[in-house]
Amino acid sequence: MAASVTLSNLSCDDNEYSSTFTLSQLPEELLFRTFSFLDVISLIDMGMTNHYYHALCQRNQAGWTNLCLQLWKTKIHVAPAARSLVQEHALAAYRLACADATQRSYVTKPEFCYNPDTHQGTVWSFRFKESAGTDWTSVDPWYRGLPCRQMVFLESGKGMQYVNDDEDSPRLLDPPVPIAWRFLTRPMDLPERPLGSYVRFTVAGRDVPTYSVRRSPNGNWGFVMESCWGLYASYPLPPRRKKILRRAGEEPTWVHADEEDWTCWRNKRIRTRRHLHATLPHDPLQDDSQLLITNEIQWREAFLYNVGARVLPEGDQAIDEFDRAWGGV
Amino acid sequence: MEDAIVKLTSKEGETFDVPRKVAMMSKLVKDTFSDDDDEDDEEDETEVKEVPLPNVTAPVLKKVIEYCTHYQEEEMTPIQTPLKSGTLDELVQAWYANFVKVDRNMLFDLVAAANFMDIKPLLDLTCLAVSILIKGKSAQELRQMFNISAELSPEEQAEAQRENAAAESS
């Protein structure tokens, strides 16, 4: 009869131990449980070891469903086709969502619009660029450090103000002047792109320079659309970061206040509270010089608006027609 | 009943006397008792139960008992996904992080034992420890570590590398 071992003499000499199991001999359910703790890169690398693990690591049980959900909850727009696929084939859904986010830079109508009946859809944040001029920036709340104005665009082609002072019941209001929207594919100053790449707004009956759509440079899979004078984002834009004058060094320079706080804290000279609304360092949407559509790029549309045009031409012939009408400008 | 002892018998026939409360962390053991509870016999309350564990070797069973015993004093922090950290020391208490610092072979056997004996927190801990062995290693390093023979075709490897690149960009 084997000797009893009580709690008092528990010990385990690993050097003498020989295993009953190796990794490959563990049942699939245990391998799946192990893989469920892995990040995406590690899971893919595990799947590259051989056929057996390649097949296992492709399956939903390896953790892809959770990886999809974890990634997507940090993203603004996820392709609906990917969401539909996740239960059936989570890895394919992951791939599809990532490919869509990196390859598609135009917005679909469902992504662009808002449904006032279901309160589903995109609420766009708006601010003017400094290039719009002080007449506009002086009445833009963003320049006073306040949250951006918010707009929604209905399928009917109408733009409305979105007011969310009471989170239980946001309100849609007619803007001070009527706003209409439509997609176009070939504005005057910009190359042809798929439908959903450009938005034409008509404000108080006048076309304004085209807004060009692209993915947000913040990597959040949201969209931004900008013209030479304005910027929209399909997610809340952080309030404007305060700037202070840094007097250290030879030349005084303007820096963002929260970066200054961080620099000083890091240097252990001054410990200050981080700015409440600090955004990611170097958030390109905070800085007009980091944006893409300038007055120089959109000069024809800007010119026509400034001389009072009600309709801005579009299409392949628009530049030729402009040159014929305004040659020498 | 607090002082009741359960005899757990390993694959080799080695017997370990374990307090009932400790042993009942195993759902397998607990279910064994549940099956016996139908009989209302006063003599059963003093009888020492013996539970054979033919799938668990003695060295592994010692470690399992060690885990379950310590758990009575300090309950392990539940392991939840997504993981908040990539290091064991930041996910569970120090004792538990040290508990799984064993050689790979023992670790795999602990995984299997925790599964067989149905001890969920131990299963989570050991699977997590194995996953940490895997994390951050290339396919080649994993093959060497786990003695896996490479069988992917160049096309499959290329496809996986593309997925890697796409995943990194996301």
From TrEMBL, chain A:
Residues 20-67 form the F-box domain. This is F-box domain-containing protein. InterPro entries: F-box-like_dom_sf (IPR036047), F-box_dom (IPR001810). It comes from Fistulifera solaris. PANTHER family: F-BOX DOMAIN CONTAINING PROTEIN (PTHR48218), OS07G0170800 PROTEIN (PTHR48218:SF3). It comes from the Eukaryota.
Automatic annotation (TrEMBL), chain B:
Pathway: Protein modification; protein ubiquitination. Residues 5-72 form the SKP1 component POZ domain. The keyword Endoplasmic reticulum does not apply. InterPro entries: SKP1 (IPR016897), SKP1-like (IPR001232), SKP1-like_dim_sf (IPR036296), SKP1/BTB/POZ_sf (IPR011333), Skp1_comp_dimer (IPR016072), Skp1_comp_POZ (IPR016073). Gene3D superfamilies: Potassium Channel Kv1.1, Chain A. Signal peptide: none annotated. The keyword Magnesium does not apply. Keywords: Ubl conjugation pathway. It comes from the Eukaryota. One of its GO terms (biological process) is ubiquitin-dependent protein catabolic process. Residues 120-167 form the SKP1 component dimerisation domain. PANTHER family: SKP1. Belongs to the SKP1 family. This is S-phase kinase-associated protein 1. It comes from Fistulifera solaris (Oleaginous diatom). The lineage of its organism: Eukaryota, Sar, Stramenopiles, Ochrophyta, Bacillariophyta.
